[in-house]
Design a protein that fits this description.
The protein contains four helices and 15 strands. With about 270 residues, the protein is an alpha+beta fold.
Length: about 270
Amino acid sequence: MRPALLLLSCCAVLFVGYQGVGSHSVKMRVVDETGTSVPGADVEVLFVNYGGSDVRKGRTGGDGQYTARGSANHSVMLRAEKAGYYPAQVDNFSRDADHDVEVVMPRIVNPIPLYVWSGSSGNSVIFPIHNQWVGFDFEAADWVAPHGKGRTADFLMRFRNEFKGLRPSDMTLEERIQAHKRLLAFSKEEWTEDKFRIRAGKWDGYMEISFPNSGDGMMEEKHSVQYHAVSPMRVPHLAPEEGYESSPKRYEVRHGRPAREKETMFFSARV
């Protein structure tokens, strides 16, 4: 009987620890991108639990504030929306503390169609030539002629790379070459030594970005992080008029692939 009693005792401790969550206050102040309070915004405070969410709904007062109290055993999430503003969401707040949060809902000022191109949608940019500056056209999303369909070079890119030998493999060199030829046969491509070195080699190099015209340049968008975190509006309405750097930007490349940064970076470019 003792093992059974011990098992029941452990289960009771775990159950109490899982359910024993204290109540906490969450105060949110909704503002627009200028810091002005947004009254009358519909808001939700979600006290997220493993079995569901305890939701508190309400509307901000004249000072843009709303306060709720509840308990969660996972995390806390905030949402806000109002006509004329981009909706906002902030999540992953600690379940174990009170929170006083400013939520930014940028105004919808004058939406205009933009050209959007995303590498995550299966698109890719392959450098047509190495060690030379090549122009890229934002609107066409392509290299400028004669390397692509672009007409105007909005910025310049140059890729420099150095072959450091083949990556280690259990296959012999001849076996690797034959495997590569079979792979290219599917797309009816001709095998060349350069293509093989690109696929099987170790490369060290870097990519540079520059601009063709005086006054053009780019700057890291410091303030866009808060927009990116809580709203579909990821950058300010107006780009800055000053502060752009025209000197070439260098990005390291490891084994033929651009090194990833820990966090996403946004840039404004004047072209």
